[in-house]
Amino acid sequence: MSKVHPLARDAVKAIVPYASARSSMSGGAVWLNANENALAPAYQLDGTFNRYPSCQPKAVIDGYAAYAGLAAEQVLVSRGADEGIELLIRSFCEPKQDSITICPPTYGMYAISAESNQTSVNKVLLKNNERLDLPGIFATSPKLVFICSPNNPTGDLIPREDIIAVLEHFKDQALVVVDEAYIEFAPEASVVSLLSRYPHLVILRTLSKAFGLAGLRCGFTLAAPEIINALKKMIAPYPIAEPVAQIAAQALSPTGIAQMQQSVATINALRDDFITLAASLPGINKVWPSNANYVLLQVSDAAACVNALIAEDILIRNQSSQLGLSQVVRVSIGSPAEMQRLAGAMQRYFQPNQRETA
Ligand SMILES: *Cc1c(COP(=O)(O)O)cnc(C)c1O
């Protein structure tokens, strides 16, 4: 790592830079390592860009509010859901004083944003990688509890009754943040209907996954107006560039939503086929059930598996460093052609002595 300037804050010097899926890519033709959507539609831009954009573009806010069944006052748009995570921590956690609670194995950015705000992280492992450890969570005193459902990287849905138990416990004490980045792949599991009952519930959403717009950097925070207003004080004056607003508004139009739902149906079917294949291969010790556009696999040697696929120009992600997991790889669901290439490569790696099936 290159040296950090001596005048930088101690907290900044201590940070280990986040290795994103993109930064660890070394070429490769088939990208199945960042849960992106390979079936993305193309978009058009028009007009000039000489004016500063609106902080919260009305067409985007109204579009998302209509899509989520909420009022505009309950919606914040930001540079990806990642900025929503950061805004929540910066707005609600006093540095060096408050903490957040997370349930590993889970999405990495909660801990990273906490660290950069000098906020400590209570880690309460999922039970069996699927249920929340409620007594463990209740033993912490955080300002924010992060629950990811479907959970990245396991793909599990967190049971609604567990989320409700956490909401009941932390009334008037902490915000409960449910990260629904992948909810379009299992829309019936959304807890958006609980917003009217629990004013301390916050839901994170994104256009990066099912909508196929990871390159756009556009995400949403859904919550009571008082929470949204706190976040608006902390957000940059012009977080959403005009081209981003134009494309997001197109994605949230009835046509855009119908396209998204069609690609979700395709991806869910490809995922189920891939799970069937993976479960049949010797050397794959566990296949997690998935409610999203990725599948977690336990293998005997995760690094060797990743490297064998890299040799065939296919990138998947080693998730073995996650707390509570070992020798696991996460495979994002790509296009039909990409999944066919992946199937061939996996058969060659896991069944080297067998002739490939056609
Ligand atoms: C991808 C992802 C995000 C971040 O989404 P962006 O909108 O691209 O910042 C948030 N949470 C989870 C669980 C994710 O997998």
UniProtKB/TrEMBL annotation:
Modified residue annotations for N6-(pyridoxal phosphate)lysine: 209
Signal peptide (residue range): none
EC number annotated for this UniProt entry: 2.6.1.9
Catalytic activity: L-histidinol phosphate + 2-oxoglutarate = 3-(imidazol-4-yl)-2-oxopropyl phosphate + L-glutamate
Names of required cofactors: pyridoxal 5'-phosphate
Keyword Transferase listed: yes
GO function terms (MF aspect): histidinol-phosphate transaminase activity
PROSITE patterns from the UniProt entry: AA_TRANSFER_CLASS_2 (PS00599)
PANTHER family (UniProt xref): HISTIDINOL-PHOSPHATE AMINOTRANSFERASE, HISTIDINOL-PHOSPHATE AMINOTRANSFERASE-RELATED
Family from the record: Belongs to the class-II pyridoxal-phosphate-dependent aminotransferase family. Histidinol-phosphate aminotransferase subfamily.
Record's subunit section: Homodimer.
UniProt protein name: Histidinol-phosphate aminotransferase
